[in-house]
Design brief:
The chain has a domain of about 180 residues: 3-Layer(aba) Sandwich (Rossmann fold). The chain contains nine helices and ten strands. The strands form two sheets. The protein has a six-stranded mixed sheet. A four-stranded antiparallel sheet has the order 2-1-4-5, covered by helices on one side. It is globular. It starts with 8 loop residues before the first helix and ends in a 14-residue tail after the last helix.
Length: about 280
Amino acid sequence: MNVLDSVPRTALAVTHEPAAPPRPVVELDGVVKTYGEKTANPVYALRNVSLSVLPGEFVAVMGHSGSGKSTLLNLLGCLDRPTAGAYRLDGADVAKLSRRQLAHVRARKLGFVFQSFHLLPRLTARANVELPMQYLGGVGRRERRRRAEEALARVGLAEKFERRPTELSGGQQQRVAIARALVNRPSLLLADEPTGNLDTRTGLELLALLQELNAAGATVVMVTHEADVAACAGRAIHLADGRVTRDARNGAPADAKRALTELPPDNTETPEHSA
């Protein structure tokens, strides 16, 4: 008799444990944010918001003025704390952290891109991108230079290391801001109306860049009030009066790079000031 005949068939079966789901980068559980809570008429900016964002997602947060989207972004960016509920970033409850710990989280785990670029005009593109590493500390001068140049090359500015913001177009300045946001390799990239100050062509170029970064693994949460901008994300969360009214995945996000090819030729820009 074959020795295997005496072994129960179930013991011979190869079992494969199902892969554990990825841990969310962002988890909000019953988050409430009020202002003037000690007064008779507190203002509710967020009301019982619960949501999560998984690694590699590209999420658009939409809503009219006063909907709570800016408050939500401030909470996600550890610039404010919830009045009630929990916010976990990479599994850590950030509401329980000290101000110093929050500053460390912002430097280590978060990258910010704003509608205004917030670049220091006297510094070169490379020096602007080096700033987060200088604030964080622990990164030598040569390594800061290398990582800054790597980040600028990643956003298509390999030839612009020594240019100052005034020598760059709006689109190029926003690319510098994105490189600065990426240089510390954050868990989450937060973009607040990143195309708001840009023309249609340059805005699409920036959206194409965000899509490329997302395809390479970056987790992106972008606040916008424009439906065509949100259409480039893989998921859209709608807020109204501080509540999530809709949270839907976009099965076919708009391809910003393809949309660029469909624009009429633009012969008004010189190569020096193209995005």
